[in-house]
């Protein structure tokens, strides 16, 4: 005996509810929205070179936009996060370039070179760590329904 499809109607898929921003994701939202732009504006004001001023402005803007969009759980958050992380990675490699310049010119000071090497390494590692957090975090998946 054949049964019609009316006997077993298809149930519509219920979209899973999104989780609120919390935990490490909340920390990253606060850091991206407030701490990152604040630090970049400070550096922006003390910069002596126009190209560094532009880099600081780009980092501040992309951090602010990525933070606000992530906090609001917008679908546009991930592209802005990628843009910010690429800008931050570029800045870290630029710092590494300046580090090599300091090491080649001993009159500029070894302490400045060591300081730049530390900041360069920290910026590159931070960008990579943030990327992998957004890539593998279950909190991000539960909040956005996917990872970066």
TrEMBL record:
Instruction: Specify the protein name.
Output: Uncharacterized membrane protein YozB (DUF420 family)
Identify the keywords attached in UniProt to this record, alphabetized. Answer: Membrane, Transmembrane, Transmembrane helix
List the top taxonomic levels of the source: Bacteria, Pseudomonadati, Acidobacteriota, Terriglobia, Terriglobales
Residue ranges annotated as transmembrane are: 21-38, 50-71, 83-105, 117-136
Species per Swiss-Prot/TrEMBL record: Granulicella mallensis
């Amino acid at each position: 005996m054949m049964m019609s499809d009316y006997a077993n109607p298809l149930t519509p898929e219920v979209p899973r509810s999104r989780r609120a921003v919390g935990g490490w994701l909340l920390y990253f939202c606060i850091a991206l929205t407030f701490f990152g732009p604040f630090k970049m504006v400070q550096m922006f004001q003390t910069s002596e070179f126009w190209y560094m001023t532009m880099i600081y402005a780009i980092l501040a803007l992309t951090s602010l936009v990525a933070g606000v969009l992530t906090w609001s759980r917008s679908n546009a958050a991930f592209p802005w996060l990628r843009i910010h992380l690429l800008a931050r990675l570029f800045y870290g490699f630029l710092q590494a370039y300046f580090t090599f310049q300091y090491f080649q010119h001993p009159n500029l000071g070894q302490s400045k070179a060591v300081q730049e090497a530390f900041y360069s390494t920290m910026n590159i590692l931070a960008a990579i760590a943030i990327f992998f957090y957004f890539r593998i975090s279950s909190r991000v998946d539960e909040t956005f329904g996917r990872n970066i």
